[in-house]
Amino acid sequence: MSAHIGVTGLAVMGANLARNLARNGFTVALHNRSVEKTDALLAKHGDDGDFVRTETLQELVDSLEKPRRVLIMVKAGKPVDSVIEQLEPLLEPGDIIIDAGNSHYEDTRRREAALAKKDLHFVGIGVSGGEEGALNGPSIMPGGSKESYDALGPLLEKIAAHVDGKPCCAWIGTDGAGHFVKMVHNGIEYADMQVIGEAFDLLRSGAGIEPAEQAKIFEEWNKGELASFLIEISAEVLGHVDAKTGKPFVDVVVDAAGQKGTGRWTVISALELGSPTSGIAESVFARALSSQTEQRQLAQELLAGGEAAVEVPESFVEDVRQALYASKLVSYAQGLDMLTSAAKEYGWDLKLDEIASLWRGGCIIRAELLKEITKAYAAAEKPANLLFAPAFTKAIAEVLPAWRRVVATAVQLGIPVPVFSSSLAYYDGLRRKRLPAAVIQGQRDLFGAHTYGRVDAEGTFHTLWGEDKSEIEAVDTH
Ligand code: 6PG
Prior knowledge:
alpha/beta, Rossmann fold, N-(1-d-carboxylethyl)-l-norvaline Dehydrogenase, domain 2, Single alpha-helices involved in coiled-coils or other helix-helix interfaces, three-stranded antiparallel sheet, 12 strands, 55% helix, globular, binds 6-phosphogluconic acid
């Protein structure tokens, strides 16, 4: 029996993807560096569908129909290169290697280019939804050549989550486009998680609402425009009581958040692209600050608070809900704007409506909001920024007073809300008629003759600051 696809790397994610493929009627050849994992999977879940047991990569390759599809699910970085190195001599032109891990998109671009020279397809696919999603339907973001998608897409679309009968999987674009979009997905994920954390802190420290009560508030929020996987699981986390102590679970967990790195990658890439993803960046920095436990300890002893004794308004819970909505929307707007910049930089034809659509189900940032975002980008006239789509322009205008009240109250009370407040600053920065950047241009021209443009004339100018301060036309030296 020849298998439709091979999977190598059978830790939880690889095993679950293999099982998902088998459950959907595909014959899956299994391979793992140590055969015990393969056997354990077969012993436990062999009934999920048709599997082919293999012990070596050669056996795996031999068991596949052509063009061969080999999916690698190993740790991002060197392990991926090592598996590719071993696989490559065993494959024939036209075969497809798929990397379903959280690889950096630049690695994917490099690997794709190297393998293309050998007539092999290399497809980096972003897979979101955690272990559960991998088994029951993830959101899938495949890059690589269009040709490889033709051979691979039908399998991926079948195992992906479906919303309104549509698979949460579509060809994203060439080379590293799939992994890039997955990376930005994770950046938005970080911001989304952080704004929920900020809402929790505001409700507790500002309004004295205990976690169990907040769980109910979050459940309520999950019925409206905030409905999303992350709000849903936050209600569960907040409602959970520690069995050992009887305390709220969130009070016994160390408040230092780690990261595997995709959020950080998003911000590094945003900086390189000159893309203002301030909310995403603040969420990465917030995790970093949370992990500076020693400094935090010292700061509690050394640094003054100077908080103002302000009462939180009556409407506080609803205000926080609205501010959360606005900040979340800005994170999506920034992430999608970054995709637009990346598309230009890397020559990808990224379709934002399709991307928003495939985030509607299966993935960690799945949210009700994505339906409207999909619609906004499917319109004949695409908004230059998500916030310019009429539905969102209106939605933000409505929540703006609450958003300002919440940020102002947080500042007065000394509650850090880096994403709530930076999102508002982004919003205000975007719509500001004159930004202080003109002063910066003046400073740059003074100390470095970096030149400037004028509002009333074409060209580039320089003021002779050290002489008579007259202005000359200049060659742009940036
Ligand atoms: C997903 C997730 C997943 C990712 C982490 C993020 O979309 O299923 O984004 O791919 O690995 O859950 O982990 P860190 O918070 O450790 O970066």
